[in-house]
Inverse folding.
C-alpha cells in the first residue's frame, strides 16, 4: 500500500501562523527550509514539547505553548507531547536560585495522569502522541549518560543565567542539575525532532538539544519559544504556587470571574496569547476602547467568554456570563451554592473555623486574614475586621460571601 501523503498549505502562510506570538525562532531560514522540504515530500515535521508533571494541573499559562502545538497540528504536522517522568526526578533548575526538590515517582505518576487528560482541552487527541521520556532515558543507562555528558562542557553550562548567577554568588549547584538540559536534549535525539517548542525561560535547554543533535548524525532542530504569561496579578509569571493562575479544569464561573479581575492592559496580552483573535482584530478592539465605542468591561467579557468556551463549551460560557452579570451587576447569588452543616456550641460559632469548613479559606490563618481585610459578609452584612465569633441559632442558615465571587451557605446544627 502506498504511503499517505499530507498536503500542506503554502510555506509563507505556515510561517505567518507559526510566527504569531513567538519570541525566539532559531532560525527562521532553517524553519522555512524544513517546511519547504516537508511540503515537497508530503512528510510532516516532528514537533516535540516537554512538560514535567511538577504540579497536578495545567493552567492558562501552559496553554500558550499548547496553542502553538495545536497550530502545528492544524497545519498537518506531527506533535509529540512528552511527559517528563524521568526529568521530573531530576528537577528542572530553570529560574531557580537553589536546587529544586525532586518529586517522588508516585507524585509524578499522579500528576502525569492529569496532564494526559487536561492537555486535550487544547490539543487534538486524535493527532497527539503522548510519550514518557523514561522510555529512552531510563534505557540509556549509566554508560549512556556518561557518553551524553561528554558532549557538553561546564563552561557552556555556566553561560546559562541561573547557573552563572548561583556560581558567582557562591550558591550550591548540584551536579545532577547539569544533567537536566542534557536529558532534555536527548529527548530530541530519541524522537528525531525537527522542531522543539518551549517558553522563553527554556531557551538555553532547547538550544542544548539543537547543539548536540549533529553529534548523533541528526539535523539540528528548530527552536521556537513562546512568551511567559503573566498571572492575574499582572506582575509574576502565572503559577499555581503563587495563586495567580486560571486552571483549565476550574468551574466555568470561577474562570470567568478570575479573568474579569485582570487589568485592562493585561487583557490585551491574554487576548493575544490565549485566544485565536487575530492581531488585527485585537488592534481594532483597542481602537474602539480608546474611542469610547467599546467599554473595556465588555471587551473583557468577550475574552472570558472565549476562554471559558474553549475549555467548557459555548453553553457554559453563556451561563457563566449571565451568572457574572447577575452577581456583580444586580447583586445576585449563584444558582448553585455549597451548603454545609456547621456545629453550634453555646450559641456561637468560631468564624475562621466556619470559613475553612465551608471551603472559603484553606486555613485558619487565611480565614483570619480575610476577616481582617474586611472581605467577609454574612447575609450581605459586612463582618467587622475584629470579629472572632458569631452568634448562631440551631436550625437557621446564613449566606457567607468572601470577596466578590465566593459564596457558601452555613446551616447551623447542634454540636454533639
Amino acid at each position: 500500500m502506498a504511503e499517505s501523503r499530507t498536503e500542506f498549505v503554502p510555506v509563507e502562510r505556515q510561517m505567518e501562523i507559526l510566527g504569531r506570538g513567538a519570541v525566539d525562532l532559531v532560525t527562521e531560514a532553517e524553519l522555512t527550509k524544513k517546511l519547504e522540504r516537508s511540503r515537497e515530500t508530503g512528510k510532516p515535521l516532528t514537533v516535540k514539547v516537554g512538560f514535567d508533571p511538577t504540579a497536578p494541573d495545567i493552567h492558562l499559562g501552559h496553554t500558550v505553548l499548547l496553542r502553538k502545538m495545536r497550530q502545528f497540528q492544524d497545519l498537518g504536522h506531527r506533535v509529540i507531547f512528552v511527559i517528563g517522568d524521568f526529568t521530573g526526578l531530576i528537577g528542572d533548575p530553570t529560574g531557580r536560585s537553589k536546587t529544586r526538590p525532586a518529586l517522588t515517582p508516585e507524585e509524578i505518576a499522579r500528576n502525569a495522569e492529569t496532564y494526559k487528560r487536561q492537555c486535550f482541552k487544547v490539543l487534538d487527541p486524535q493527532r497527539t502522541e503522548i510519550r514518557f521520556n523514561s522510555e529512552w532515558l531510563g534505557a540509556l543507562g549509566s554508560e549512556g549518560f556518561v557518553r551524553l555528558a561528554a558532549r557538553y562542557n561546564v563552561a557552556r553550562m555556566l553561560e546559562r543565567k541561573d547557573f552563572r548567577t548561583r556560581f558567582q554568588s557562591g550558591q550550591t549547584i548540584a551536579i545532577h542539575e547539569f544533567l537536566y538540559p542534557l536529558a532534555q536534549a536527548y529527548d530530541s535525539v530519541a524522537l528525531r525532532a525537527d522542531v522543539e517548542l518551549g517558553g522563553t525561560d527554556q531557551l538555553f535547554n532547547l538550544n542544548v538539544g539543537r547543539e548536540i543533535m549533529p553529534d548523533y548524525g541528526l539535523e539540528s532542530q528548530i527552536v521556537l519559544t513562546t512568551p511567559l504569561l503573566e498571572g492575574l496579578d499582572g506582575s509574576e509569571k502565572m503559577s499555581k504556587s503563587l495563586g495567580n493562575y486560571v486552571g483549565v479544569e476550574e468551574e466555568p464561573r470561577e474562570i470567568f470571574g478570575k479573568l474579569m479581575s485582570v487589568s485592562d492592559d493585561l487583557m490585551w496580552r491574554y487576548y493575544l496569547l490565549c485566544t485565536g483573535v487575530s492581531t488585527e482584530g485585537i488592534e481594532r478592539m483597542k481602537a474602539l476602547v480608546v474611542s469610547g465605542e467599546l467599554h473595556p468591561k465588555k471587551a473583557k467579557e468577550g475574552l472570558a467568554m472565549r476562554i471559558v468556551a474553549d475549555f467548557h463549551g459555548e453553553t457554559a460560557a453563556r451561563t457563566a456570563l449571565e451568572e457574572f452579570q447577575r452577581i456583580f451587576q444586580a447583586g445576585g447569588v449563584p444558582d448553585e451554592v455549597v451548603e454545609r452543616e456547621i456545629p453550634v456550641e453555646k450559641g456561637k460559632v468560631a468564624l475562621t473555623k466556619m470559613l475553612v469548613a465551608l471551603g472559603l479559606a484553606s486555613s485558619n490563618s487565611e480565614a483570619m486574614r480575610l476577616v481582617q481585610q474586611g472581605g467577609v459578609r454574612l447575609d450581605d452584612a459586612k463582618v467587622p475586621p475584629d470579629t472572632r465569633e458569631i452568634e448562631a441559632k440551631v436550625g437557621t442558615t446564613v449566606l457567607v460571601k468572601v470577596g466578590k465571587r465566593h459564596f457558601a451557605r452555613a446551616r447551623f446544627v447542634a454540636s454533639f
